[in-house]
Structures are given as C-alpha cells and as structure tokens.
Design a protein that fits this description.
Shape: globular
Order of helices and strands: HHEHHEEH
Oligomer: single chain
CATH superfamily: Winged helix-like DNA-binding domain superfamily/Winged helix DNA-binding domain
Structural class: alpha+beta
CATH topology: Arc Repressor Mutant, subunit A
Largest sheet: 3 strands, antiparallel
CATH architecture: Orthogonal Bundle
Radius of gyration: 15 Å
Strand order of the largest sheet: 1-3-2
Strand content: 5-15%
Number of domains: 1
Distance between the termini: 11 Å
Number of strands: 3
Number of helices: 5
CATH class: Mainly Alpha
C-alpha cells in the first residue's frame, strides 16, 4: 500500500516520538523541539539562546532545565537522559553549546533510517 508524503512524514514523527518516549515517558512538545533543534545543528552545536530563538520562545529557565535533564547532569531530581552533551563555547566561555550525545545520535539515526526507507 502506498502512503502519501504527509502520511509518511506523520509516521516518521510518530516513530521518533515513540523512541524518545521510551527513554523519557513524559516528553513534552518543548523538549521534543529542543531535541530536534540540537539534532539539526549537530555536530556544530547550538547555544541555548539560539535554540530558544529557533523554537520561538523566551523561557531561558525552561531551556536550562531541559538542557540539564537531557545531558548527563540531570535536573531537579530528574534522572539524566544522556541525549545531548553540553560543552563550553570556544568563542564565549560563559556560554555552553549543546550537541547530540552518542545516544542522541543513535536515536536521530533511527529516525533518519526510517525516513529513507519510506
């Protein structure tokens, strides 16, 4: 059975959401957006401020918590997910950049493989 491009895209998004929810069952839309923005900028990395701009919101505390939770740091009693890595910006040591961790790359690769098959 042939599926339309819209159906295939929807199925691919459902797949990546399911994969991420298997890692973090209470994944929010904002957290999914953060993961996708970080993945889009991998391996170069993206600052939290840039990610907020791309997502279209201005909640730096929400971004900080999400980045910590998705990294190896964890946030407010939440287990670290190890999906991204935080590292100092070589141009501004006060700022941290985000990029996918090896686990994050594997999740994103699964998503890309699914898209190529469909």
């Amino acid at each position: 059975m042939l599926h339309s491009a819209v159906e295939m895209t929807a199925m691919a998004v459902e797949l990546v959401c399911s994969r991420l929810r298997s890692i973090h069952p209470e994944m929010t839309v904002f957290q999914l957006q953060v993961f996708c923005v970080v993945a889009a900028m991998h391996p170069k990395g993206i600052s939290q401020r840039e990610a907020l701009t791309r997502i279209g919101t201005s909640e730096p505390s929400h971004m900080s918590r999400t980045a910590a939770h998705f990294s190896d740091l964890g946030s407010r009693g939440m287990e670290p997910l190890h999906l991204i890595e935080l590292y100092p910006n070589p141009l501004d040591r006060r700022e941290r950049l985000m990029r996918l961790s090896p686990l994050g790359v594997a999740v994103w690769r699964d998503f890309g493989l699914y898209l190529r098959r469909t």
